[in-house]
Every structure is written in C-alpha cells, then in structure tokens.
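Hi V.,

Quick status before I head out on leave. The structure for the redesign project is tokenized and pasted below; the design run finished overnight.
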C-alpha cells in the first residue's frame, strides 16, 4: 500500500468521510450539515472546505469541526444580509506523509 501524501485523492476522501460522519453528531441544528459545500486544493498542500448559505454558526460547532478535521484555520464572512460563508483551510503537513 502506498502512503497517503499531502492532498492526494485518498487523503481528501478520508477527510470528507470523517467530516460527513462527524457533522451528524456535532451539528444538531444542521447549520453546516446539508449546506452546499466545495473542496479546493490550494498550492498542492492545503485544502479549502467552503460551506455556503449558512444561516448562522456557533463557536461550539466550529470547534467541533476543528476536532474532526484537525489543525485548521476557519473564517466566517457574509454572503448576503442573512447568510454566511464558512471556510476551513487544512494544511497537509509533511508529517502526514508517513505510514504506520
């Protein structure tokens, strides 16, 4: 088996799976769950996860997502007067390129 490196399709799929499973537990109000989401690789070593049309977000929900996906940066910005865009940027460090 080859190691999962950086933003390989396997690493991204694994992160998407963890997020899909975890959101059901940490997002009881469905603020992120079921919202339009996009994934974008940045510079070959970062992944941007963007949720659109979010009505609101609590700090506890942001912290819950951070627990699921690991060390990341989060930003919340207005999309319209009533909706937000919530972005998480995950850095795939070289330390993730190891096998156990």
């Amino acid at each position: 088996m080859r190691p999962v490196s950086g933003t390989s399709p396997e690493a991204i799929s694994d992160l998407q799976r963890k997020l899909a499973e975890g959101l059901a537990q940490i997002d009881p109000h469905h603020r992120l769950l079921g919202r339009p989401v996009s994934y974008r690789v940045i510079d070959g070593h970062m992944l941007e996860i963007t949720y659109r049309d979010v009505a609101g977000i609590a700090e506890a929900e942001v912290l819950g997502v951070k627990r699921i996906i690991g060390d990341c940066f989060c930003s919340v910005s207005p999309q319209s007067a009533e909706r937000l865009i919530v972005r998480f940027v995950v850095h795939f460090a070289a330390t993730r390129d190891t096998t156990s």
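Above is the designed sequence. The longest strand covers residues 46-54.

G. will cover questions while I'm gone.

Best,
W.
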